[in-house]
Task: inverse folding
């Protein structure tokens, strides 16, 4: 994960440690390298600029430069600021006081929405919940079937009404959950190749009909800055409670993970790290920063 970024930052810090006492220009040089490494990892330009400025400001203080291990202090500051960048609450689903908890999953086609609907259901089932998966993606061929296959695999029931109106399906699924003792309803909505008004209108209708407790956007980390733009659009149109960043097991550079919170204000709640049903993790900014910095 984020191998290129990790290697570059580690090289910079190794050089810094080799210097012993640090001068202001050593810090400036290191920050130039950090800046390049972050930009190459496809982190948003403004995010990089603010991040480097903040780190530099903290590093150039007397206390750091005159400390016994200035390089360690610089690394510590980078670590702290990286946590801050990705910060916020991590992977928890807000459970409604009166069941069922309704989770609405949104995202573009191919982001991993259907897979993550099932992964979430599987995770919640292991936590003792009784989830119901709901097939509201009525456009993509085989999306309903895909959800049913995954549901069977993890032994979670799937509610579908074929190609009926998605808002009606969503509403009916809550009645069904109430009647059958299912305490979490996870709605897999339709995606599109691109964001368009038709999609947003449909999602707004579902949202106002079922009043979800959690609206989670599924975005593909491999798409870098696009993932950030998609998150921003969905957030401004629908108000997101969090993001699930998928495909972090692939050869992704890190731009999504490091920019989404800073650009959109939305926290990443979960990350997808594979195609299997247990390949989902709560997102912990501190652990992610440690992974990146080695
Ligand atoms: P949807 O169109 O958003 O519902 O996307 P799908 O759930 O059908 O996922 C699209 C493809 O991405 C499928 O082949 C999934 O197996 C794959 N996929 C989903 N999440 C992950 C992940 O975290 N890692 C990897 N490597 N593949 C994933």
Result:
């Amino acid at each position: 994960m984020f191998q290129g970024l990790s290697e570059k930052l580690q090289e910079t810090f190794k050089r810094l440690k080799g210097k012993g006492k640090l001068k202001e220009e050593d810090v400036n040089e290191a920050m130039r390298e950090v800046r390049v490494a972050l930009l190459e990892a496809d982190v948003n330009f403004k995010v990089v600029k603010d991040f480097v400025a903040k780190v530099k400001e903290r590093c150039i203080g007397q206390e750091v430069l005159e400390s016994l291990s200035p390089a360690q202090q610089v690394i510590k500051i980078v670590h702290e600021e990286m946590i801050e960048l990705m910060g916020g609450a991590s992977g928890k689903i807000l459970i409604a006081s009166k069941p069922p908890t309704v989770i609405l999953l949104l995202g573009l086609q191919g982001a991993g929405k259907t897979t993550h609907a099932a992964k979430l259901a599987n995770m919640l089932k292991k936590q003792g919940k009784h989830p119901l998966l709901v097939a509201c993606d009525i456009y993509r061929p085989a999306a309903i079937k895909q959800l049913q296959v995954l549901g069977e695999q993890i032994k979670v029931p799937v509610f579908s009404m074929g190609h009926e109106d998605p808002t009606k399906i969503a509403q009916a699924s809550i009645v069904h959950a109430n009647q059958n003792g299912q305490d979490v309803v996870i709605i897999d909505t339709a995606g599109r190749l691109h964001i368009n008004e038709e999609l947003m209108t449909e999602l707004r209708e579902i949202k106002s009909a079922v009043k979800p407790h959690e609206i989670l956007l599924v975005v593909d980390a491999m798409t870098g800055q696009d993932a950030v733009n998609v998150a921003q659009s969905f957030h401004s149109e629908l108000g997101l409670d969090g993001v699930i960043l998928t495909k972090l097991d692939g050869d992704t550079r890190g731009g999504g993970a490091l920019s989404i919170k800073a650009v959109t204000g939305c926290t990443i709640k979960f990350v997808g790290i594979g195609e299997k049903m247990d390949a989902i993790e709560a997102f912990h900014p501190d652990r992610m920063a440690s992974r990146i910095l080695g």
